[in-house]
Amino acid sequence: DQQVKQNSPSLSVQEGRISILNCDYTNSMFDYFLWYKKYPAEGPTFLISISSIKDKNEDGRFTVFLNKSAKHLSLHIVPSQPGDSAVYFCAASEHGATNKLIFGTGTLLAVQP
Amino acid sequence: NAGVMQNPRHLVRRRGQEARLRCSPMKGHSHVYWYRQLPEEGLKFMVYLQKENIIDESGMPKERFSAEFPKEGPSILRIQQVVRGDSAAYFCASSTSGTAYEQYFGPGTRLTVT
Q: Across chain A, where does the E strand assignment appear?
């Protein structure tokens, strides 16, 4: 039962344009969402997060949007840079649980120079 | 920069042997999580530990797998009698507390069972 879904296995974007990565979830008890970036042979690196009481959080080039009614979140990267090329994982956590993260399967972003 | 440390980075074991994976959390972090990533899949939660306590092991296979986080020293994930299906990347993460949602990951240990 995949509670966090990233339906696009890959995305290709031109340098300087916007990258939009999407994530859907099924568990309405999730109250915190995170995005991680992962390069090959490295561990995931925390990028940005959002609480369920907000609908937007911004940090530099990265913005996460949360639509609770649709159980959908997205990560916007603008402008995209070649160094952003990596696998991006969406993760969710449930308040009152043990803080374990439930991950999506990831989206491979390729930013073309 | 004392991030999360994991060793070894690569581990090769024959079927039936034991694998021991070590994780030292970030300085000031007392909560450790282990995740496993099988090929072409996302990370799957295995176990959550505090010093000397297992808080949540709901993701651990029922047999052959165990984890500890002693008062002194690193957290250890132990896999007994490894099988080919155990081949995966094992990641450790740490956080400052059980209420801190952000977890910081180590570089992982890539286990190959031959």
A: 4-5, 10-14, 19-25, 30-38, 45-51, 56-59, 62-67, 72-77, 86-94, 102-103, 107-112
Three-state SS for A46? strand
**A-chain residues near B105 (CB < 8 A):** 36, 43-46
Residue B106: list chain A partners with CB under 8 A: 43
- What average pLDDT score do residues B85-101 get? 87
Instruction: Give φ, ψ of B32 to 5 degrees.
Output: -125, 140
Interface A–B counts its CB contacts (< 8 A) at 69
B59-84 pLDDT per residue, tens: 999 899 999 999 989 999 999 999 99
- Window 25-84 of B: residues touching A by CB (8 A cutoff) are 31, 33, 35, 41-45, 48, 55-56, 58-59
Residue indicated by tokens 């986080």: B69
| pLDDT above 70 as % of chain A | 97
Rounded distance between C-alpha atoms, residue A3 and residue A1, angstroms: 6
Task: Tell me which DSSP letter residue A78 carries.
Answer: S
Q: How confident is the model over A22-63, as pLDDT tens digits?
A: 999 999 999 999 999 999 989 999 999 999 999 999 999 999
